[in-house]
Design goal:
Chain lengths: 311, 381
């Protein structure tokens, strides 16, 4: 069953269309990756799903019910983990979760049990009485998640939940996302970290300029760009490199430089590796390694949008 | 309703968790104390008169001191001739009388010497005592004149005069002007602090926007309307408690009688308080950050309170400024209280009350309009 059905969704701020005639469905039980660069329209779409913004046009259905008419029902069953921490620094971890869970109508022993369950789930069971201002960044992120799951929502929207945290906490959060999914929650997950999305998401949509430009499983998305390949060439120094001459080589689509690594995207059917290497030698580059990469999500994103995810 | 109560409890806890907010809540009481200190000490404390008794051996000389001491509102202190002027100059005494040696004998002989009150404050302070004293001395001199040196007869008539009963009906008229000034200025401070306190509580909306909890609140089943309603309800309760506390403090501790029935005073203050809350919501709705609302609060509240006479009486202000004051809600509150103190009936002041309601409605309308037009949720996600 579809948990979210978005049809013809548009949100305009003045003349600017942040979301432009978007249509999308999320099935129950999915971990759905929502990929897009800054300003692509992800947050605006999330805000409309969470009933924080009214669409200019179109509709969103949650479990078959239009959320414009059944906002209370949708809100009772959606949990949101915002990109920026949304917790009270001067309230203990327990008080934070208790307050937000209380907004869903829980009281007494049931409320206490749900708060303890949520805190234990994110690994803060022994930090209940501590103030978040004494927490590490990762612990605050986990508390941010606990506040969103105490009411046991059917859909959890996670907007960049791992930004700026240590690898241990990131790993903990990713495992938690998988665990929540195993427990029956549908997850809508946005991230700048492509490898996270590849690791946990069962389906992915790429958003650009307010529109869904691709939607499918990782394999389906990668299959879109079977006509291109990526060549990584490590050099001692990029000083003296002439990018324009590289781009003139037959089949080369784009050239990117990441420190001492050149990432050259090229048409798959054209054998141009020798020409590329010879051009680099003419430019005085000292080649250390050459590797041909199979398409990954980053290549897909770049090919489809023409920009990096972090742009 | 359950959610609103939950939000109210949260707002109360979060507001009064901070010591600075408790202090802000209690500021109106401090304002009343300040006002009582500024205006309450002016006059009304009684007249302190020093007596230099150099004729203590004579009964008449002693009786003069006793007579002065028995006058209403007069407190006498025996002192020496050398200290009298110093004490008057230092402000420890308001006036002094020196009763010279042999004064009683001369009075009994029918040729009294004039007794003068020594004071730096002039006739405004001494006239009452001087007149009473002159009357007393004239009566004693008349007895002396009548008895023509017959000491036994003088003593008998003098004793009958000093102990004799005659009926005097006395009506005491209190000088209420000082109490009214104190009440007026106390309310001025109360008004200013209610306004600051209201903005502080409404600013919680901005604080929650800044720490992003507002987003989480609105993504829960809480509507923006019930969220603001809970904030307003807490604000109203806090404001009513402030008013009750301040009026109780004025009456029970400082014994200030405002001259206005307490329920009427409370009702007017609550009416004004609703306007203050609406104004605070308007300030919050016009601000994008707490810093902005604090600046706006200082820009609006402090000058308008000054112009409306909350800190200083309007009488000392130029006519042009007084006219500006008429456009401010604080002025209408203070004017209503002033008129009630001067005997106007509550019912006759309906226009003042309507103006206060109109101010509240106008501020609330602007706040509602601004809140409803806020489409900037993007910044919260």
């Amino acid at each position: 069953m579809n948990i979210i059905e978005i049809g013809g969704l548009t949100k305009k701020f003045g003349d600017f269309a942040a979301v432009d005639n978007m249509s999308l469905t999320l099935k129950e039980g999915e971990i759905f990756g929502f990929l897009g660069a800054n300003g692509a329209g992800k947050s605006t779409t999330i805000s409309m799903i969470a009933s924080l913004l009214r669409p200019t046009k179109g509709e969103i259905k949650f479990l078959g019910k239009n959320i414009a008419k059944h906002a209370h029902f949708a809100k009772m069953n959606i949990g949101i983990v915002p990109q920026d921490l949304a917790i009270y620094e001067d309230m203990t971890a327990f008080e934070n979760v208790k307050f937000f869970a209380g907004l869903y109508g829980f009281r007494g022993s049931e409320l206490k049990a749900r708060v303890e369950e949520a805190l234990s789930f994110v690994g803060l069971g022994d930090k209940q009485k501590e103030l978040p201002k004494n927490f590490s960044g990762g612990m605050k992120r986990r508390l941010n998640i606990a506040c969103a799951i105490a009411h046991r929502p059917k859909l959890i929207i996670m907007d960049e939940p791992t930004v700026g945290i240590d690898p241990h906490s990131r790993n903990y959060i990713l495992q938690s996302v998988k665990e929540l999914n195993r427990m029956g929650c549908t997850i809508l997950y946005t991230s700048h970290y492509m490898e996270e999305v590849e690791e946990i998401c069962t389906r992915i949509a790429i958003v650009d300029h307010g529109k869904i430009i691709a939607d499918g499983t990782k394999e389906q998305l990668k299959a879109i760009i079977t006509d291109s390949k990526e060549i990584w060439i490590d050099v001692k120094s990029v000083e003296g490199l002439n990018q324009e001459r590289l781009k003139e080589i037959r089949g080369v689509l784009s050239v990117r430089i990441e420190e001492q690594r050149l990432k050259i995207q090229s048409r798959a059917e054209i054998a141009n590796l020798n020409d590329i290497v010879q051009q680099l030698i003419r430019d005085g580059m000292e080649i250390r390694a050459v590797e041909e990469q199979a398409p990954n999500l980053e290549t897909v994103f770049l090919t489809l949008t023409g920009r990096n995810l972090r742009d | 309703m359950k959610t609103i109560l939950w939000l109210m409890a949260h707002t109360f806890r979060n507001t009064f968790r901070k010591r600075s907010n408790i202090i802000l809540f209690l500021l109106p009481v401090a304002g009343v104390l300040l006002s009582a200190g500024l205006y309450g000490s002016a006059g009304g404390a009684g007249l302190r008169i020093g007596i230099v008794q150099q004729d203590g051996a004579d009964a008449v000389g002693r009786d003069i001191a006793a007579f002065v001491g028995a006058l209403d509102g007069v407190k006498i202190t025996e002192t020496s001739d050398a200290d009298l002027k110093d004490q008057i100059a230092a402000g420890k005494l308001d006036a002094g009388i020196a009763i010279p040696a042999g004064f009683g004998e001369k009075l009994k002989a029918g040729s009294p010497e004039p007794l003068e009150l020594l004071s730096v404050k002039g006739a405004q302070v001494t006239a009452y005592v001087q007149a009473m004293l002159d009357g007393y001395l004239n009566n004693v001199a008349s007895i002396a004149s009548e008895t023509q040196g017959d000491k036994a007869r003088f003593e008998r008539i003098y004793a009958a005069y000093t102990q004799g009963g005659f009926k005097v009906d006395r009506e005491r008229l209190n000088d209420a002007s000082n109490v009214k000034d104190t009440t007026y200025q106390s309310l001025g401070f109360l008004v200013a602090f209610i306004m600051f306190s209201s903005v502080n509580m409404s600013e919680m909306i901005l604080r929650e926007k800044e720490n992003r909890t507002f987003l989480r609140l609105l993504s829960s089943p809480v509507t923006a309307r019930s969220y603001v309603a809970a904030n307003v309800a807490v604000n109203v309760i806090a404001m009513m408690c402030q008013i009750a506390l301040t009026l109780t403090f004025m009456r029970a501790v400082l014994h200030i009688d405002s001259g206005v029935p307490v329920m009427q005073l409370a009702l007017i203050l609550v009416l004004f308080g609703l306007g203050a809350i609406a104004l605070s919501l308007m300030i919050v709705s016009l601000s994008k950050s707490k810093g902005q609302s604090s600046a706006l609060q200082n820009l609006i509240i402090t000058p308008t309170c000054l112009l409306a006479g909350c800190y200083f009486p309007m009488d000392i202000m130029p006519d042009a400024i007084r006219k500006v004051g008429a456009f401010l809600p604080q002025h209408w509150l203070l004017d209503t209280v002033n008129r009630l103190q001067h005997g106007d009936s509550f019912g006759s002041l309906y226009m003042n009350l309507l103006v206060l309601v109109a101010f509240a409605a106008a501020f609330a309308a602007i706040a509602i309009f601004r809140f409803s037009r806020n489409n900037d949720t993007r910044s919260f996600v």
